[in-house]
Specification:
Length: about 120
C-alpha cells in the first residue's frame, strides 16, 4: 500500500450549512410524476435568523474592565451583509482566463501545495 496517494479534501462548496438552508424551504409536491420531471424546482435559501433572541447577554464580548454587558439586538437592526457573510463567493464565468477560472486554478493550486507539504512531513 502506498502512502503517496492524494487524500481527498473537503471543498468549500460542500459545507453543511448549504444543505440545511435548502432543506428549510421546500416546494409542495405535485400529484403526477411526469409533472415533477418537467418542472424544475428552484429553491432559495431561507434568510437565517440569529442564534439568540434579542436582549440576550453575550458573554465574552465585553473584554474591557467596567464595560456594561453586551446585549443582542433584534435581527432587523443588524446590517443586511451580515447574513450573507458566510456564503462562498460565486464568480461570474467570463470566459477563458477570466476571474472565475483564475480563482478555481488558485484554489486547486493551494490544495496541491498543502498536499505536497503534508507528504513531505511523512
Amino acid at each position: 500500500m502506498s502512502f503517496l496517494c492524494r487524500l481527498p479534501r473537503r471543498t468549500p462548496l460542500s459545507t453543511p450549512w448549504i444543505a440545511r438552508s435548502y432543506a428549510s424551504s421546500t416546494a409542495p409536491a405535485s400529484s403526477s410524476s411526469a409533472a415533477k420531471k418537467d418542472t424544475e424546482v428552484t429553491r432559495t435559501p431561507a434568510i437565517p435568523l440569529s442564534s439568540c433572541p434579542p436582549d440576550t447577554v453575550l458573554t465574552g464580548l465585553n473584554f474591557l474592565k467596567g464595560q456594561s454587558p453586551v446585549l443582542a439586538l433584534p435581527d432587523d437592526q443588524y446590517p443586511e451583509w451580515l447574513w450573507n457573510i458566510l456564503r462562498p463567493k460565486e464568480w461570474q464565468d467570463d470566459g477563458p482566463g477570466g476571474r472565475a477560472e483564475r480563482a478555481k486554478r488558485r484554489h486547486t493550486n493551494r490544495g496541491n501545495i498543502k498536499d505536497r507539504n503534508f507528504m513531505s512531513t511523512q
